[in-house]
Amino acid sequence: MKILVVDDHPLVRRGIISALSFDEEISDIFETSTVDESLKVIENKKPDLAIVDLYLADADGLEIVSKCKDKNVDTKFMILTSSLRKNDFQRCMEAEVNGYILKEAFAEDIIYAIGVISRGKQFIDPEVIRYQTTVVLENETLNELTPREHDVLEELGKGLSNYEIAQNLYITENTVKKHVSSILLKLDLTHRTQAALLVNGSVKI
Question: What's the rounded Cα separation, in Å, for the pair 138 and 20?
Answer without folding.
Answer: 38
